[in-house]
Amino acid sequence: MNAKPAIGKNGTREQSMNGKAYQVISSWDGDVLKIDMTGSITGPSILEDGQEMTRMTNALLDEHKPAKVLIDVRGLIGRFSIVDSWYHLNEYEPSQHIPHRLAVVDNPENREYFTFAETAGRNAGLQARYFEDIDSAKRWLSETANQST
Questions:
Q1: Which CATH number, 3.30.200.20, 3.40.190.10, 3.20.20.105, 3.30.750.24, labels domain 10-142?
Q2: Is the pTM of this model over 0.70?
Q3: According to the model, what pLDDT value does residue 45 have?
Q4: What DSSP letter does each residue of the chain carry, written as one string?
Q5: What whole-number percentage of the chain has pLDDT above 70?
């Protein structure tokens, strides 16, 4: 089933597929675009669901063109494999908006997924960092562009 995301008020985008549900919800926190991902992407449709969430996120980035992005996935059940993450990083089109800084906040048990993605993202020119604490992520995002990553 190829359902299209419904777009609601305040940039809320919600997707449900085959009885599984997840949400991609966006809001602004000062000059930071905050994207919360919640729900579940598990089972046979994990790759398809994850790709759809990525498309939804990319659409938000292209629409708003933020310099700083905070993605909070602590409320999301299920993760891509490390190999799938690599393929996702290579799907970026040159015309897509890439924020200056991207902070991802996740639970400590998912660190291995983001250690690889953080390195691969840097190799592709993206300043992306993984955090287990949202306050640390916000501090890093608030640093000036001239400070080191």
A1: 3.30.750.24
A2: yes
A3: 76
A4: --PPPEE-GGG-EEEEETTEEEEEEEEEETTEEEEEEEEE--GGGHHHHHHHHHHHHHHHHHHH--SEEEEEEEEEE----HHHHHHHHTT--TTS---SEEEEE--GGGHHHHHHHHHHHHHTT-EEEEESSHHHHHHHHHS-TTS--
A5: 73
